Amino acid sequence: MPIAPGHYMNALHIPIAHLLDTIGRLAYFKGWRADQLARVAAEAHQVALAKNERLAAKGGLLDALYVVISGQMRLFIPLPSNMERVIRLVGQGESLGESCVLLGDPCPYDIIASKASHLLRIDALTYRRELRTDPVLTERTLLLLARRLLDTLRETEICAQRTGVQKVACYLLQFRPQGAETQFEMRLPARKRDIAGQLGLSQETFSRVLAFLVRQGAIHMKGNLIRVNNAAGLATLNPTGCYREPEACEKLIQVNAPVG
Amino acid sequence: MPIAPGHYMNALHIPIAHLLDTIGRLAYFKGWRADQLARVAAEAHQVALAKNERLAAKGGLLDALYVVISGQMRLFIPLPSNMERVIRLVGQGESLGESCVLLGDPCPYDIIASKASHLLRIDALTYRRELRTDPVLTERTLLLLARRLLDTLRETEICAQRTGVQKVACYLLQFRPQGAETQFEMRLPARKRDIAGQLGLSQETFSRVLAFLVRQGAIHMKGNLIRVNNAAGLATLNPTGCYREPEACEKLIQVNAPVG
DNA sequence: CGTGTCGTTGAGCGCTTTCAACCCTGGTGG
DNA sequence: CCACCAGGGTTGAAAGCGCTCAACGACACG
User: Fold this and answer.
1) Which of A87, A131, A141 sits opposite B153 (nearest CB)?
2) A130-134, A253-257, B91-95, B134-138: lowest mean pLDDT where?
3) Cα(A66)–Cα(A144) distance, rounded to whole angstroms?
4) pLDDT band at A253 (very low <50, low <70, confident <90, very high)
């Protein structure tokens, strides 16, 4: 349902009385002191975004920290050919914009709501004031950025793989739980098109690779739900030009030891 | 020149008396208090690495912060097919390892000396103690990681470009100084092979793209020194399969408006 | 003058992209 | 209840681009 333009980005959906409870339950604010939460709840603004509405553009100014109350935001670098290189998908309780606010740098990506979303907007001045007056908070933020940097490097590693099969294998194996040796289930955290953009693939190639893995028996797929049958085999799968000729694949399956 | 194995990683090259002055001049320690510097100089160890010697392996433990006193370190993700995806080149006065030390996570890349190098090794306990006891230092580190995260995103943007020509163009334009509209000079900060690894290209492709840009008149190259003739033109260059057939390129140069 | 490192060039293959059409599902309104 | 539509996903055919392997050239060093 489209929202009237004037309604964008300034709706107040949660009554002030309940806002404190709501944000107190968000993962981002875990461990904050009561007085800090109260100040943030009093000073922060709420932002409502319709699906596909843009919060910021690459190169623009980002003068606030945002915390996702509900919905999902998509951070991506727009490429020639209308493709998107997805940097991060930000879900409920996660934050975005720390680096830009702290350094005053222009936003390095486009930010768009991938679903109808509800954000908390913490002004740059407010944010920096809270950090400055509480070393504990500064340290927490330091750990947050360290974690995000390592996450980004993991993405880089995935994208560095040469073939699509290797990329998808690396990506899926990220979700393997502790102790799950060979089999596990997972759910894709976004549209396949966005996952593809995260792996540096076109959605068509991503689709083909998944279909190939299903044919090989390495995974089983039903909508967004994926069951990995052979985690060890995934990493070593040979992408031998196989996902173009279904019939040639059938032969290969019979030649090689079946994975299922 | 090979160094005796026992000599690796424990040589003391700078007398204690001069160490304090030496590290005080490094960019990383800019703004540190005298007493902090003194403690670090007293407790840190010096590490000498021969060219191509490894400091840490991907997946291994990294239990110290390192600051480059001299030389250059190469951080990269090893790929099947013996290729390297270079994450970062760390030069004099720069540091590495913050995220791993702070989070206790395994090292996300291999670390190898790309030249004979001299490092300062600050133990994890020492490092965390200094951070814990000085909020100013914590805040400085926070800004450092924010900067590094944005730098990593810029690398991601470069690597996300579809064609090699676009990658190289993006990479070169990074070095454009303020106010330099169309022309500027720069020096490649490492071996071409490592730059290629940073762009997600093979060294052969990188070489071919540079040769193509020279033929087009977009740049001029002499060893590691590159002069960009037409910054605006670089970004819009069409990679039309041209760097495979030199004679076909010649025609294109005459058809299109010459860039030089 | 050998030797090793670094960079360049050539030929061929293979993977990914591109553009296109098609399928499938859920929501909507008559 | 069903026709219709939009969004998301799948599949096909063709072409482009980069990788691989190999050989060669340039240069510094001992």
Assistant:
1) A87
2) A253-257
3) 14
4) very low
Is B239 near strand D, with its CB below 7 A from some atom of it? yes
- Closest by CA position to A119, among listed A226, A3, A14: A14
Instruction: Determine the distance in angstroms separating the CA of B143 from the nearest CA of chain A, rounded to an integer.
Output: 7
Positive or negative torsion for Cα A54, A59, A61, A63: positive
* B67, burial (CB in 10 Å: exposed 0-12, middle 13-18, buried 19+): buried
| Sign of torsion over alpha carbons A151, B167, B80, A164 | positive
Which 8-state DSSP code applies to residue A29? G
Q: Whose CA is closest to B96, among B88, B84, B104, B85?
A: B88
Name the one residue in this structure whose structure tokens are 């913050």: B98
Smallest CA–CA distance from A102 into chain B, residue: B143
Q: Is the pTM of this model over 0.85?
A: yes
**Amino acid identity at A87:** I
Q: Are residues B142 and A142, on separate chains, in Cβ contact within 8 Å? A: yes
What band does A156 get if pLDDT is binned at 50, 70 and 90?
Answer: very high
How many whole angstroms separate alpha carbon A186 and alpha carbon A99? 31
CB A179 within 8 A of CB A65: no
By C-alpha distance, the chain A residue nearest B136 is: A135
Is-contact B76 B85, C-beta < 8 A? yes
What is the pLDDT at residue B248?
47
Q: Which chain B residues are Cβ-neighbours of A147 within 8 angstroms?
A: 99, 103
**pLDDT tens-place string over residues A195-248:** 999 999 999 999 999 999 999 999 999 999 999 999 988 888 776 656 655 554
Predicted pLDDT of residue A227: 96
Strand partners, A70: A118
Nucleotides of C strand lying within 7 Å of any protein CB atom: 6-11, 14-20
Residues of B in contact with A162 (CB under 8 A): 79-81, 83
Please list the ranges in chain B whose pLDDT falls under 50: 1-10, 248-260
d(C-alpha B41, C-alpha B15), whole Å: 11
Which residue's C-alpha is at the least distance from the C1' of C16? A205
Comparing C-alpha atoms, which of A76, A78, A82, A234 is closest to residue A164?
A234
Contact between A71 and A93 under an 8 Å Cβ cutoff? The reply is: no
Task: Return the pLDDT at A82.
Answer: 87
Is the C-beta atom of A205 closer than 7 angstroms to strand C?
Answer: yes
Q: Which amino acid is present at B196? A: A
* pLDDT in the model for residue B18: 83
Q: Given an 8 Å threshold on Cβ–Cβ distance, is A149 in contact with B152? A: yes
With distances taken from each CA to the C1' atom of nucleotide D10, the closest residue turns out to be A207
Cβ atoms A127, A95 nearer than 8 A: no
A204: its two tokens: 């068509």
Distance from C-alpha of B10 to C-alpha of A149, rounded to nearest angstrom = 30
What is the token pair recorded at A110?
């486009």
